[in-house]
From TrEMBL:
Pfam families: DHQ_synthase, DHQS_C
Pathway: Metabolic intermediate biosynthesis; chorismate biosynthesis; chorismate from D-erythrose 4-phosphate and phosphoenolpyruvate: step 2/7
Cofactor comment: Binds 1 divalent metal cation per subunit. Can use either Co(2+) or Zn(2+).
Major subcellular location class: cytoplasm
Cofactor names: NAD(+); Co(2+); Zn(2+)
Residues engaged in binding Zn(2+): E184, H247, H263
Name of this protein: 3-dehydroquinate synthase
Keywords: Amino-acid biosynthesis, Aromatic amino acid biosynthesis, Cobalt, Cytoplasm, Lyase, Metal-binding, NAD, Nucleotide-binding, Zinc
Lineage: Bacteria, Bacillati, Actinomycetota, Actinomycetes, Jatrophihabitantales
PANTHER family: 3-DEHYDROQUINATE SYNTHASE (PTHR43622), 3-DEHYDROQUINATE SYNTHASE, CHLOROPLASTIC (PTHR43622:SF7)
Residues in 3-dehydroquinate synthase N-terminal domain copies: 67-178
Reactions that this protein is recorded to catalyse: 7-phospho-2-dehydro-3-deoxy-D-arabino-heptonate = 3-dehydroquinate + phosphate
Location in or out of the cell: Cytoplasm
Length: 361
């Protein structure tokens, strides 16, 4: 017998549910009610699944289409969005029609932005198929693409009408993509729910395997953190910034690596950097700061980066979306599960914290 699905509410002006369970395709038609056309956006790896979803939707009376995107981060580009707009135009996609984002965070970010932009906003249901997608990217309506100048620089806040997470699809995910998703799970542990850290520390090797014993609880707790935060602050006017813990340096590393690194791997180094900066500012105790490096290493995530490139990373960090004018802004910790934002930290401390993560250490 299948277990009943877990439903986590996202509240606010446009409420919706994040559903965690298995065999959730039956949840899709009611979320699309009123649409005549549906387009399922997916990466090449999920061609067969997208085709099955399309057939299912056709059988339910929709005129369903699939739109195949480039894989991974390559989907988050203006040209790819332009291609989608062209297809939607050809299909005759109207405001009552709806999109489905089926894939990892890169797919749901691109699909979400296409939904936010086409006719100034059409419905989207997100069906995340990676760990990062389920615990983070598909929830909260932060959509967007990268530009030559940096990560996610163009986008919109456009909440989905529903998020369907079938944990069984994680079994086909390459292990390094699964591990990358753990960086966002660990982020949630440090900013809001330390029980997540305890669950991982109890058996880190086991936690890196899809389908592990605590997977359901880790996903549920992380989704609960994200849902609570975006319910209160969809447009990142304050509280939502805490979800950016580890991302200021992380995004700069992703750009330096021309988006060939997994997001979670770059965020992992960014988390250690943020902890070191918090420690350098006298905000974070040694035990909690050291715990970052220990837990991330224990699940085989990287915790150091190239020496000698800090000036270049700093230039990129200046156009981070949290910056205000010439002032850099960081999410740091003032103790475990006590996130704070700090404006314009002393440049000497920024460099000192980097020396703690640079690999000539
Ligand atoms: N909008 C947000 O709030 C938010 C939050 C976190 C991350 N992100 C973004 O998400 C992206 C990272 O997402 P990601 O880690 O999911 O990576 P991803 O979307 O690049 O997917 C990783 C790889 O897994 C493959 N894949 C996806 N599902 C699969 C499955 N079930 N089985 C086999 N292969 C599968 C993909 O084809 C891809 O090759 C980054 O662009 C990041 O910026 C956004
Ligand atoms: O949802 C948010 O808010 C986040 O910051 C979650 C992050 O994990 C995610 O990577 C997000 O896309 C980063 O946002 P950005 O505004 O720094 O581009
Ligand atoms: Zn992230």
């Amino acid at each position: 017998m299948t277990e009943p699905a877990t439903r986590i509410q996202v509240t606010g002006a446009q409420p919706y549910e994040v559903v965690l369970g298995s065999g959730l395709l039956g949840e899709l038609p009611p979320l699309l009610a009123g649409a005549q056309r549906v387009a399922v956006l997916h990466p090449p790896t999920l061609r067969a699944t997208a085709e099955a979803v399309r057939k299912d939707l056709n059988d339910s009376g929709f005129e369903a289409h699939v739109i195949e995107l480039p894989d991974g981060e390559e989907a988050k580009a203006l040209a790819v969005a332009g291609f989608c707009f062209d297809v939607l135009g050809q299909i005759g996609f109207t405001r009552s029609d709806a999109l489905v984002g089926l894939g990892g965070g890169a797919t749901t970010d691109l699909a979400g932005w296409v939904a936010a932009s086409w006719l100034r906003g059409v419905r989207i249901v997100q069906i995340p198929t990676t760990l990062a997608g389920m615990v983070d990217a598909a929830i909260g309506g932060k959509t967007g693409i990268n530009t030559e100048r940096g990560k996610n620089l163009v986008g919109a806040f456009h909440p989905p009408v529903g998020v369907l997470c079938d944990l069984s699809v994680l079994s086909s995910l390459p292990v390094n993509d699964y591990i990358a998703g753990l960086a966002e799970v660990i982020k949630c542990g440090f900013i809001a729910d330390p029980r997540i850290l305890e669950l991982i520390e109890a058996d880190p090797a086991a936690v890196t395997v899809p389908g592990n014993r605590v997977e359901g609880e880790l996903v549920r707790r992380s989704v609960a953190v994200k849902a609570r935060v975006v319910s209160e602050d969809l447009r990142e006017q304050g509280l939502r910034e805490i979800l950016n813990y580890g991302h200021t340096l992380g995004h700069a590393i992703e750009k330096a690596e021309r988006y060939t690194w997994r997001h979670g791997a770059a965020v992992s180094i960014g988390l250690v950097y943020a902890a070191e900066l918090s420690r350098a500012l006298g905000r974070l105790d040694d035990t909690t700061a050291d715990r970052h490096r220990a837990i991330l290493t224990s699940v085989k995530l990287p915790v150091s980066y190239r020496a000698g490139v800090f000036p270049q990373l700093l230039e990129t960090m200046k156009v981070d979306k949290k910056s205000r004018g010439n002032r850099l802004r960081f999410v740091l910790l003032d103790g475990l599960a006590r996130p704070i934002t700090i404006d314009d930290p002393d440049p000497a401390l920024l460099a000192a914290a980097y020396s703690e993560v640079s690999d000539d250490n």
